[in-house]
Amino acid sequence: MAYVVRGYRMKFSLNLGRGEFAKTINCLLTNADFRAILITDKRKEITMNKKYEERKNSLLPGGKPKWIRCYDNGGKTIDRYTVVFTGNYTGKTGRQSWNLGMSSNPFHPQGFGQHGESEYPIDRPTYGHLGKKIKFDDMPADCQKLVLSDYVYLWNITDHPYYTED
Questions:
Q1: Structure-derived torsion over alpha carbons of residues 51, 59, 107, 130, reported in degrees to the nearest 10
Q2: pLDDT by residue (tens digit) across 73-100?
């Protein structure tokens, strides 16, 4: 953080990036420079926040993930519910399509929740082997929570309560 005292030039450092790509920039600013930067950053922040909110609302309309397909095999196997993540997120996954198989209680010690990946979505061209297509709301609450945590990670929705960078 930089503090600028009226009429003086002050040196500060700004750290950009992470890890080995991190760079430190040293700057000399006057009060006028600092005010200009704050105004410019505030405008960018407002624009970025508006675009981010629009993007988030298009990806999570009504708080529900838009780019998934959900299936229920009626309890024939331990991975009763299967979710296929769709959309153009594959740059984050090495061009792989993600899916998630889970029991009705994936967080329980005796529950099941496992991720899978494939070159192509596993429900194309047919999905009969996954069970009946269902809505996101038809899954148990724990399954919805697990799906949402992966979904917000894939789409980088950083202010969602289930978002983690792990």
A1: -160
A2: 999 999 999 999 998 886 788 888 999 9
Q: What are phi and psi of 25, to 5 degrees?
A: -110, 130
Backbone angles phi, psi at 74, to 5 degrees: 75, 15
Report the alpha-carbon distance of residue 155 to residue 163 in Å, rounded.
10
Residue 101 is inside which H or E element, if any? strand 97-102
* Residue for token pair 């009626």: 74
Q: What is the pLDDT of residues 30-78, one digit of tens each?
A: 555 544 455 555 555 555 688 888 999 999 999 999 999 999 999 999 9
Q: Per-domain residue ranges for the chain?
A: 10-59, 66-154
Q: Where are the beta strands (DSSP E) in the chain?
A: 10-16, 23-29, 68-72, 81-85, 97-102, 113-118, 132-134
Cis, bond preceding 106 (omega within 30 deg of 0)? no
Instruction: Please tell me the distance from the alpha carbon of residue 43 to that of residue 148, in angstroms, as a whole number.
Output: 31
Model pTM?
A: 0.69
Alpha-carbon torsion, ordered 101, 106, 107, 111, to 10 deg: -120
